[in-house]
Amino acid sequence: MSLTRRDFLKVCGGTAAFLGFSKLQILEALAQAKAGNPPVLWIQGAGCTGCSVSLLNAVDPDIAKILLEIISLKFHPTVMASAGEMAMAKLYNAAETYDKKYFLVVEGAIPVAANGRYCIVGEWKKKDVTMVDLTKRLGQQAAGVLAVGSCASFGGIPSAKPNPTGCKPVQAIFKDAKIKAPVVNIPGCPPHPGWIVGTIAHILTKGIPDLDRFKRPKLFFNDNIHDNCPFLKYYEEEKFAKTWADKEACRIKLGCKGPDTNSNCYNRIWNNGVNWCVDNAICIGCVEPSFPDGVSPLYEQTTG
Ligand code: FSX
Ligand code: SF4
Ligand code: SF4
After folding, report:
1. Nearest CA to ligand 3 atom 5
2. DSSP code per residue over 114-172
3. Ligand 2 neighbour 266 (Cβ under 6 A)
4. Quick check: 107 and 148 in contact, CB under 8 A?
5. Structural domains present in the chain
6. What Cα–Cα distance (Å) separates residue 264 from each residue in 73, 170, 219?
7. How many helices (H) and strands (E) does the chain have?
8. What is the per-residue pLDDT for 203?
9. Could you tell me if 111 and 166 are in contact, meaning their C-beta atoms sit under 8 angstroms apart?
10. pLDDT band, very low/low/confident/very high, at 201 (cuts 50, 70, 90)
């Protein structure tokens, strides 16, 4: 295993204590992964692929180490080379081989209108495979399910009104189909790569992390953005930005949803530690179940 602890912390964008991990536990995660990487099947429904891009693009130093050494990615519709029935055969074989042992990652919401035909994700024995059928089939055999992104977690943008395709989140599909596999939601549109990798590392070392009432890991979604925002002093002084160029002012009158949003973006920081939404724009509340209908209009004051 060549991923150092320093690399891992860069990936996670924080300190070990901040993540709730000791050095020993991180090394333990890596050692466990080396001994037998947990197989991961990643499927995608109605979304923009931003969740995959966030994970693949923003991780430094080496996403290949995460995907090939920490987890064993058996299927991913965006990055894998195989296609068509060959790809579907690999997917179904992996599910049988690792029955009740693999983790299923679901990215994107799941359209159920018109018998799911708005989202055909493959073909098997000359028949279309819908996202809703694939989610149910693979969900039943999974050891656990990570709903990655706000679309998979809560419905997100694809389920915004009037939702003509009948998009639903993973939890709703499982409830309807009485599927019992545990679900962890990692929302964000897209989610921070550190939230995804940090959750996987926690599952490897200590099992499923403590979750809040929306099934989000408390490690990353426990703190209110507004209460911890570096711009809070301006809010308290009632210095409010009127334009994007007003840098020394609170952004609430431009539409910032920080008071209604819980995540650690304010100190995790995005883009490998370069900046975060509120530095240059606003928080649009992308990790909350109410996103996007409940936080619209995005660029008008709706809170505070
Ligand atoms: Fe959703 Fe993923 Fe937003 Fe996009 O596909 S969480 S639309 S960033 O990327 O599901
Ligand atoms: Fe920061 Fe937004 Fe709260 Fe203002 S409203 S202090 S910009 S989180
Ligand atoms: Fe989402 Fe707000 Fe975090 Fe930006 S700051 S990623 S909008 S929760």
Report:
1. 283
2. GGGTT-EEEEETTEEEEHHHHHHHHHHH-SEEEEESHHHHH-TGGG-TT-TT-EE-HHH
3. no
4. yes
5. 5-220 (3.40.50.700), 223-304 (4.10.480.10)
6. 27, 24, 9
7. 15, 9
8. 86
9. yes
10. confident
Residue among 251, 254, 261 whose CB has most ligand 3 atoms within 8 A, to mutate: 261
What is the average pLDDT across 276-304?
Answer: 96
The chain-wide mean pLDDT, for the chain, equals: 88
- For 169, the token pair is 């989140």
Residue type, 163: N
Instruction: Identify the pLDDT of residue 2.
Output: 35
* Residue found under tokens 């901040």: 18
For the chain, give the number of residues.
Answer: 304
Q: What is the pLDDT averaged over residues 183-197?
A: 94
Question: Any idea what DSSP says for residue 68?
Answer: I
Whether residue 12 lies in the annotated active site: no
Ligand 1-lining residues (CB < 6 angstroms): 47-51, 107-108, 149-151, 156-157, 189-190
Per-residue pLDDT tens digits for 25-83:
545 565 565 556 778 999 999 999 999 999 886 555 467 777 767 778 899 999 888 99
